[in-house]
Amino acid sequence: MTGKLLAIILGLSAVLAGAGMYYLQVYGFYYEVEPKPGQDVALLPVGGETPQPIAYSSFQAIDADSSPIRYRACFNTDLSEEQLSDFIPVDNAEPLTAPGWFDCYDAVAVAEALKSGQAQAYISAKNIHYGVDRIVAITEDGRGFVWHSLNNCGEKAYDGTVVGEECPPRPQQ
Q1: Which DSSP symbol is given to 122?
Q2: Which of 9, 57, 73, 109 could pair covalently with 146 via S-S, beta carbons 3.0-4.6 A apart?
Q3: Band of pLDDT at residue 157, cut at 50, 70 and 90
């Protein structure tokens, strides 16, 4: 009888721990980002160092303090391809997935649009966190998506290899 009771307790503990980890990973750490009109969506101009805000509407975003790459956002814009040509494009951008409950952001659809040429990715801000760049993708029909991506320095810093002199010094923790 003691063995059965112990097995039941262990089984319930495992189920509760698994459910808790799932909740924390998918829901627990995320929060909605309050829109800051004129500041939420910006692109880095060719030859510039300061991102320039662009016109947008229907902005939605989520973030989490547990990781610098959990930021995701969606918006709409009326900018034409000609107007967007003033900003730095990003080649081979790979959108990161978002929780399923964040309906406006579909990383697979964004990746397909980027691959087919129906969308173009741009750099929004370099080193928004150490080793992390903000990427904005805009489709031909004006839908926009934002995510954070590790840059070369971030990939090196977080996988444990020597960062090197080409990267800025890492801020003190």
Answers
A1: E
A2: 73
A3: low
* pLDDT at residue 75 tops 60: yes
Residue 171: CA atoms inside 13 Å, Cβ hemisphere, count?
Answer: 6
Which amino acid, residue 28?
G
Do 61 and 72 meet the contact criterion of CB atoms below 8 Å apart? yes
Q: Is 164 exposed, middle or buried (0-12, 13-18, 19+ CB in 10 A)?
A: exposed
Average pLDDT over the chain reads 87
pLDDT computed for residue 158 by the predictor: 67
Predicted local confidence at residue 164, as pLDDT? 63
Is the pLDDT assigned to residue 65 strictly greater than 90? no
Residue type, 122: Y
- Burial code (b: 16+ CB inside 10 Å, e: under 16) for 100-111 equals eebebbbeeebb
Question: In whole angstroms, what is the distance from residue 83 CA to residue 68 CA?
Answer: 30
User: Given the structure tokens 């063995």, which residue do they identify?
Assistant: 3
How far apart (Å, rounded) are the C-alpha atoms in residues 54 and 172? Answer: 33
Pick left, alpha or beta for residue 42 (phi over 0 → left; psi -120 to 50 → alpha; otherwise beta). beta
